[in-house]
Amino acid sequence: MQVHQALSALQQAQQHIAAGAYQAAGAAAQQAHAAAEAAFLHPAVLAQLNFPESHKLGIYMPLFLPVSVPLMQGLATEGVRSLRRWRSYRAGAAAV
């Protein structure tokens, strides 16, 4: 219902623009915007926007897993290199 109201108000705004009645077009556009916002915030639509966590995991895992493996390898390599550098620094400080 609200979607139909938004679309009809949008068509009215377009007709008013074609006729040169810009005040009426602005009012119709405001009505279309208000009806579209009301339709978007309708409880039936909001239920479809909130996906379960398992669906999000199933969608995003194939995207993030291939990226995360090289990142983890790089993090491990840098960690080992930092540990070696710290050990060599500590060994040099102990010798002095």
Overview of the molecule:
The chain has two domains: 1-50, no CATH class; 52-96. It has four helices and no strands. It has 96 residues and is mostly helical. It is elongated. The model has no long low-confidence stretch (mean pLDDT 88). 91% of the residues lie in helices and 0% in strands.
List how many beta strands DSSP finds: 0
Low-confidence regions: none
Question: Measured on Cα atoms, how large is the radius of gyration?
Answer: 30 Å
The total count of helices amounts to 4
Gap between N and C termini: 83 Å
Number of domains: 2
Helix-strand category: mainly alpha
What characterizes the major β-sheet? none
Mean pLDDT: 88
| Strand-residue proportion | under 5%
Shape: elongated
H/E element order: HHHH
Relative helix content: over 70%
Helices and strands, with pairings:
Elements: H1 2-19, H2 22-40, H3 43-49, H4 53-95
Main traits of this protein?
96 residues; mainly alpha; 4 helices
Short précis:
The protein is an all-alpha fold and 96 residues long. The protein contains 4 helices and no strands.
